[in-house]
Amino acid sequence: MLDTIKPDARPLYAQVRDILIERIHTGTWSPGQSLPSEMSLAAELGVSQGTVRKALNTMADDSIIERRQGKGTYVTEHTSTQVLFKFFQIYEANGNRIEPGTGKSKLKINRASKEVARSLKLKPGEEIIEITRLRTHNNNPIIDELIILPRKLFSGLELQKNLPNTLYDFYQRDYAITVSEVEENLTASVATKKQAKELNLKEGAPLLVIDRIAADIEQTPIERRISYCTTDNLKYVAKLR
Amino acid sequence: MLDTIKPDARPLYAQVRDILIERIHTGTWSPGQSLPSEMSLAAELGVSQGTVRKALNTMADDSIIERRQGKGTYVTEHTSTQVLFKFFQIYEANGNRIEPGTGKSKLKINRASKEVARSLKLKPGEEIIEITRLRTHNNNPIIDELIILPRKLFSGLELQKNLPNTLYDFYQRDYAITVSEVEENLTASVATKKQAKELNLKEGAPLLVIDRIAADIEQTPIERRISYCTTDNLKYVAKLR
DNA sequence: GAGTGGTCTAGACCACCCT
DNA sequence: GGGTGGTCTAGACCACTCT
Asked: Within 13 Å of residue A34, how many CA atoms lie on the same side as its CB?
């Protein structure tokens, strides 16, 4: 395995990181499973324990893996609450977390427009799956959501009768796709007549529009999601350093 | 200096980090200046170079300092463009960065309401400085902004005739206050008659409301800022991992 | 007690920056 | 050439987890 590591290129720990990410991506180690110990990885790859450690720590920073003292290193497994905690930035106005439910939802196959194709790195006209659903909190509708998926990555999903409430753990479990980072573009708009009806608002009420691209651990975009969110009693929270 | 480091408490590198942050905070090293080398810090504090390095690297992660190979370690200095790059998340719809200008601005002394006091960790009724200003892009008004500062931290600021366009580098230069992290709460609203007039919109047009708390390197809140932002051709960008 | 990751040390070599 | 941070190694001890 030493020959996979060439001298003089990028730092050793970055090369080790790439090898480990590749293995996770191809399923050598699956979500929830443990990786070999630092010592055995070091021996196998022909580098020192410290170098493996640095690679593992950068991966833990990106939450690709989780490390637990005394136990081992585990591939991050998406559970519904854990995904929610990580990628759902909407809180009640008083700061409490929300666990949204799902109301009625619809699914159809479509073809990617130029704009959608560009955002998901597809060719215009490639097949996409479009899901629209209404999300709820305490039985009140709060978010009108449109989800766009490349069909080639999610074959058979359109046959699924009832999609689960939280999708990212489902993507990982059923399609081996792990969402690792998302970019969200936020704007404000006012409710159309249709949105007002669905969200139980007056036409012209303000809505927060969250336009999200989600990518996997190799930075390939795998989902576009556009959410129209009421902010009467809700807010979107972002922290910057 | 070894006695400042007690055994058995938090990890050594965290204690080193605390000492260094404290020194930066009290002005032993000022923004833009270089810290001593790893070797001399290690010798002075009685720890190994590796421990100092770990402390410095975590501080660099939090951009309290900047490290340059071959040159040295520098206390992060806020420059107007650098601050903008870091804490201003608003882009043109096409993704281009914005460098906002400032239109008319007003300043007054006031007393903190309960809500403001809570957000800035003040006592209700403590004196605050309130600045309202209009921000522009390509000579068009885009943001209506209210800035609230604890007067005790910014004494004499109310006498300043013309406040600069970017404030965080000014806080650092004139008040030795370095903004290190911000939390932003986003909601949507519709323009009041007054806002519509100032921002050159129709009454009822959608606005993105950005309610920000900025804190210094010791996590003390030092500014509240509420921005009402048009999103016709603008968007707020957030990245999550 | 054995195995894991977390911390800490010590020393080597490299790449980069200055004079 | 001398000083800086960046990488890499090797080994020690500690804290935690499980059996």
From this structure: 11
Does residue B143 have a pLDDT over 90?
Answer: yes
Task: Give per-residue pLDDT as tens, A4-19.
Answer: 444 446 899 999 999 9
Examine the pLDDT at B1 and tell me if it is beyond 90: no
DSSP at A96: -
pLDDT bucket at B80, cuts 50 / 70 / 90: confident
A204 touches chain B (CB under 8 A): yes
User: What 8-state DSSP symbol labels residue A159?
Assistant: G
B94 touches chain A (CB under 8 A): no
**Strand C bases, protein C-beta under 7 A:** 3-11, 15-18
With CA atoms as reference, the chain B residue closest to A185 would be B237
Mean pLDDT over the full length of chain A: 92
Does the pLDDT of residue B78 top 90, yes or no? no
Q: What is the pLDDT of residues A102-123, one digit of tens each?
A: 999 999 999 999 999 999 999 9
B186: nearest CB among A62, A211, A238:
A238
Q: Is A225 within 8 Å of A90 (Cβ atoms)?
A: no
A206 touches chain B (CB under 8 A): yes
The identity of residue B150, as a single letter, is P
Domains and CATH numbers, chain A: 2-75 (1.10.10.10), 80-236 (3.40.1410.10)
pLDDT at B177 (0 to 100): 94
- In this model, does residue A141 exceed pLDDT 90? yes
Strand C within 7 A of B49 CB = yes
Question: How far B208 CA lies from chain A's nearest CA (Å)?
Answer: 5
Within A 3-32, residues with CB less than 7 Å from strand C: 8
Residue A98, pLDDT above cutoff 60 = yes
How many degrees, rounded to 5, is the angle at CA B132 between CA B131 and CA B136? 125
How many helices and strands (H and E) does chain B possess? 7, 10
Distance to chain B for A135, nearest Cα, Å: 18
Which two three-digit tokens encode residue B141?
A: 């008004």
| A239 CB within 8 Å of a chain B CB | yes
Tokens encoding B136: 């522009």
Residue with tokens 């990028």: A10
